[in-house]
Amino acid sequence: MLGRGPAYLQQWVRYGSPRVLAERDRRMLANFFGVAEEVLGGEADAAGWRIPRLDVSASAGPGSAVGDEALLGLDSISIETARALGLSRGQAAVIRVAGDSMAPGLLDGDRLLVDQTSRTPDTRGGVYVIRLDGMLMVKRVRRSRLLLVASSDNPSAPPLPHAPIEVIGRAVWQMRRPL
User: Fold this and answer.
1) Is 138 in contact with 98 (CB distance < 8 Å)?
2) Torsion of CA 78, 83, 86, 90, to 10 degrees
3) Can you tell me the distance from the alpha carbon of 149 to that of 79, in angstroms, rounded to the nearest whole number?
4) Closest to 48 in 3D by CA, of 83, 12, 4
5) For 72-107, what is each residue's pLDDT tens digit?
6) Per-residue H/E/C for the chain
7) Overall pTM > 0.90
8) 112: which strand partners?
């Protein structure tokens, strides 16, 4: 991918030589791995953070199985916005909504910015990406005593299976293409 021999990266990883990766190489590696360039020794981007956009859909419907989450690209968010949303660098991702069980608030094709550090719903609840019975879903989740309860916003959506809920992260920002 870089057009360099394997020794180039091995030397950098093991011995720190070269001390700084070439800018083009650093940018390509950061995009490939879905990390900020500063993780690879670059300067912090004053304009914002880069957040991986994953090729994964959280079903707002009956659920979709998850395999490998391929990186589609990187989206940018301003540092001020990231801080206002309470995000930690490297702990957020953008995913796609599939289905209509969370309509009218979330529609098929919407994109969600997911805070992967926020995994503990309270009694008021919120919109979370969860794994339920092996399926990745976006649902409204709240804590009820010691249990997590997931529900759909669309009253015509089928009921959810009774199974343990694994919280992946909280949806903190919704993005929709203009009509």
Assistant:
1) no
2) 60
3) 33
4) 83
5) 777 888 888 888 999 987 889 999 999 999 999 999
6) CCCCCHHHHHHHHHHCCCCCCCHHHHHHHHHHHCCCHHHHCCCCCCCCEEEEEEEEEEECCCCEECCCCEEEEEEEECHHHHHHCCCCCCCEEEEEEECCCCCCCCCCCCEEEEECCCCCCCCCCEEEEEEECCEEEEEEEEEECCEEEEECCCCCCCCCCCCCEEEEEEEEEEECCCC
7) no
8) 95, 174
